[in-house]
Amino acid sequence: MSNGGRFVDYFVICGLDTVTGLEPDELSGENFEQTPLHRAFKAKVLEHYPDAVDWNPFDRDAVGMLCMPKGLTFRTQVDERSPIFHSYLITREDGSRTYGFALTFYEEVTSQAVCRAMQTLYAMHNVECAAPDITCQSTLAVGNSSSPEDTIFPATRGLSFTTGLPLEDGGCELPRLNSYDLSCDTLYVSKCICLIAPLPFTQAFRKVLMQLYGAVTSPQPPPLPLESYVYNLLYEVPLPPPGRSLCLLAVLPPPILCLRPGLRELPLLDYPLRELVEQLGLENLLQLFTCCLLEIQILLYSSDYQRLMMTAECITALLFPFSWQHVYVPILPASLLYFLDAPVPYLMGLHADGPGKRSCLDIPNEANLCFVDMDEQSLDVPEDLPLFPNKSELAAEIADILREFDIPVEPQITTSTMGDRGRTTFWNSSLAWHEDEANGNGLNPVGHPVSERNRGNGATLTRLQSLARQAGISLRDLPPSSCHIGPLSNKEQEEGILFESGELRDLRINARVREAFANRFMQMFTDYEAFVIAQPAARLGGAREQTHNFDKASFLSDQPEPHLPFLSRFLETQMFASFVDAKIASQGNKRDCKDPLLSLFNARLERTRRLHVRTPTIRNATYHRCTSIEEAEEPILQRLNKVDHTAVHPHLLNMRIGQGKYAPGFFPRLQRDVLAAPPSLGRWGKQNPITMWRKQDRWHPGGSTPPDNDHTEATRGLNKGLRQPKLSDLSPSVFAQTNWKFVEGLLKECRFKTKRMLVEKMGQEAVDLGHGEVTLTGVEESTLIASLCDLLERIWSHGLQAKQGKSALWSHLLTYQDKEDEKTSDVDRNLGGTRSKSGRKSRRSPTMPRLKVTVTQDMRHVQNIDEIKTDVGRARAWVRLSLEKKLLAQHLKQLLSDCDLTRRLYKWYAFLCCEDEKEQFLFHLLGLNAVDYFCFTNVFTTVLMCYRVLVVPSHTLGMALTTANPWVCVSGELGATGILHVPRSTLEVVFECANLGRLTTVQIGHDNAGLLTRWPVEYVIVRNEITGHLYRFPCGRWIGRGVDDGSLERILVGEPVLASPGARQSLRRHYLPPAPRLAVAPTKKHLVSPGQIQEVLGEAVNNLVKHFHKPEKERGSLILLLCGQASLVSALELVLHHGFKTARLFQKPVFIWDFIEKASEHIAMSEDDEQCVEPARRSCHLSCALGKDAGLVRPGPTHSHFCTVVQAINNAPRSVGKDGKFQMFVCLGARDHVLHNWLATLADCPANAHMYEEWAILRDRSIVKALVHLLQVLHGFNITLEGSLVKGVDV
């Protein structure tokens, strides 16, 4: 709605209502140790002018709270009573904002009833302090601020002190220090005057309020009644359009200048970034900026209200082209402290009652909180906060900008008071008023003296005076270093800058620093439009979780690796989603874009593309400094050099005789009838100045848009799913409704996050089921899991009774653990005398003992990790461990099943106390069991893990006993163990070692000692005792000399087995590997046809191809595809076994490796034996011909490499059998891309004639040629072998 083009909407007076007297502030906390002089009383809105405006309804409760957040405060003549200025804003539920500017000062209390009531309160306070069971702390430091949580004594609660009771003769004598005595002390009470406006011209409104205050406190009264000045501000001063400057006269000279940025400039910011850097330091500023971008809860803490507002406005202004979408309350009144319990992202400011009070704060959720202590220059950020891209380079660029203005980049202690900053000269007749005859303003002569020394610079001094008047600065008040008169540099002469004032310096610093931040986003999102997925208008207005409008996977793949941790989290924020939504909505009509920030950002990108030939930025982390910093200052200087409009000066109104008089030193209530309505015509029958400006502006070539399209008004919309604090109604029903909105929002967010995690993990399978799009995948798994941990912390923080640590979830878990430990100890004591010992032990086959799975057991696992130092880290580790074990929903259900504990820890309105919502929440978490996570294993890679190994011998082939000493060696993705000796009696070993990651192979063998050395092994089971992962490694072979292939060690390949109790609830089907067939030797008769063998080999090769074409995060185990069931090794074994002649009766069995050794011998002898030269040539011709057909002829001697590999495998210091050597042979050939050549070499070996039947595949030239072509497909993939497969083989 249009704001009518007014500079000010309301003028408000707040303070003590002498009719109702002193009233206790029921919204403040109780603290009876405070003296009455330092307690807070209720402040009221005494008057506001006009009564109402259509475009901005007056919110009496909100204005009263924010004008005087601490309520009424009292002082005596010995206390500090300097005026204090602060600004605030009111954000409505629709996201629109109204800015307020308040000046608080002290007036003498003239009501004797109030004075007597104050003395009565002191008498009651002294009586209570004299009681033996109450400790009185009545001596407080002079000038301390009263706490917003203080209140009057209970005996006076609810009473209205219009009259006071005189002290009896025997009453208590009041202490003189920090007390009040009606007979000798003067009582002062706080009062506030406030301006409510649509735009935050902070410096201008501060000067206006200080001049109004000075008008009633100055010994020399102003020439006009106060009503004239207020009327002029309300009705005759227009709001400057974008890109224009306005000069106005508040009360007395000097005039005040307002500069409003144009549509092609960054939005209005009239708060000094310099002050923020001085308070926090550059490093802390960038940390706070990162937290704001990632939508982390931010709590500002300071004893200065203006500092809170300045920090919030500055940090959100740096977000361009994005905007804060969540709860935004820079100054949080005492009545809304419960909003700190909000489980949503917020940016709030909390007033500090004094130094050392932070320890008394009760903040429910600190796990994902950024706490900014402005007074102590400290910043606490979450543990896992990623670095902002090119943070050090950006910090260096900003530091260089600040050094140009002699601004330190480290935090500085500010000693100046708000009263010093608000000091203004109220009358200076030597300054000339700005000439503006169109508004009827008169002319005054210029009488500024010029010294003889500078008489030659008359034109320069005239220009200096003009700039000073336009900027609202008196040259007499400037320090000597601020005025530069004399020889000027060329740059200064060109720009017309003859002095460096404080306000102009802040404007220049703001422009430069903001351009540096904007340039950083332009570099990061230069090509963002290429990744936007257009959506139909109908879908765009639907639910967020059903719309995917940005190709995050492709965008992240084009970014430098160091930027991914930050960008992957930033792409999940609400501000980025709203930014992309606005982009899609504007694609149909770019000229009618409703988001000014987006339009400005796109225009800058387009301009950069036109002026510069941009090089590709993919995977390029080079930092480019901003080149448009100086250009950003030019519009500011142009508006300073030429003022677009001077407002009508205050003038005498049509008032009755006697109106407008007031007592000096007291700000009166103004005449309501005079300020009730705006003028219909100008002063001399002309049009209203606002109407005139609008009419002139239509003919201006740079015409403006309606004020309600301003950057700061249209772009900071509030997320509709969240709720902004409502100050006008604080009833219990509103409180309950607000918390219910929080509960619904948490449940909706849980549903969205769990579904997103499922779709992300399932990948293409989810797309096939219709649950997402291919472009959805690509966001890092760790980002989504960290987001889930943050959600759980916010849920457990909602409605918490009392905070016990930074992590609400871990505090709950610790309390539950203590309670369970007490139950366990009681049970142990009761059963201690009834336990019986049995001497007999049942003899059973080796089995893996059941894994104990409880909430407390997993907590102990986390508590034993020394690398985790904080409660927040332990809570997140516990969530990751439970999620990996598929027990998160079960654990949380068990935790919440203790209803008595939950009710003791949480308030009635907490999320965890809502039964229906809690059940739905656990149901959504249960869906995560459908996918496998290794979020604990992959993150904590260096922690000690406990593993249990069980060897299961075979009873089908013979005795399972052996006299040899077994050993195993376990290997995983992150490392391998050494030799682990297995006791013969139990065949089980438990050990601890560094995290091995996901297990891949197990080497098993023995030392061949004793008489019974032949040992049949069925399989090996390995379990991680912490994560519960169970791996089965099939064997089904003999280990020992003289049996099977004579192997003393075997390399077993396995895969995970579903074993945990939580996994039984999984929705996804898991397939166990079939038990292998125990074989003594290859069978003589092969029933598999050549066509079937070709299909098996093709399937194995196809699985490898699909493995490498999948995204890296979706790939399975490569070693399974090479050596597991239905792998490449088993397929080639079928090829070479087809038609293979086995040994006759009473002869040793023959293996494939025997044939490969003979082929290697024939090739080696071909150099010396001429009879073997021709077959070798034929073999070489065949392999080369086959390679030539496919265009993949490998340079170098193929046959010599074949012989080298065979010899290296035979010479390896390992006791691997012949089948194990064949497995190494195939893996090395796949790694070196020579399998197809080796198969052709074996096909032309002369040993084929007496080792293979005529119908064997290896003797069929056409089939061999097809198989060679099939194996050539693997030539294009980089196959990396695990060390356990080729251990000891030096090739």
From TrEMBL:
GO terms for molecular function: guanyl-nucleotide exchange factor activity; small GTPase binding. Residues 779-941, 1119-1284 form the RUN domain. Its main location: membrane. Residues 697-716, 824-850 are annotated as: Disordered. GO terms for cellular component: membrane. It is found in: Membrane. Belongs to the RAB6IP1 family. PANTHER family: PINSTRIPE, ISOFORM A. It holds the Pfam family RUN. Keywords: Guanine-nucleotide releasing factor, Membrane, Repeat. Gene3D superfamilies: 1.20.58.900, 3.30.450.200, 3.40.50.11500, PLAT/LH2 domain. Residues 25-593 form the UDENN domain. This is DENN domain-containing protein 5B. Residues 945-1053 form the PLAT domain.
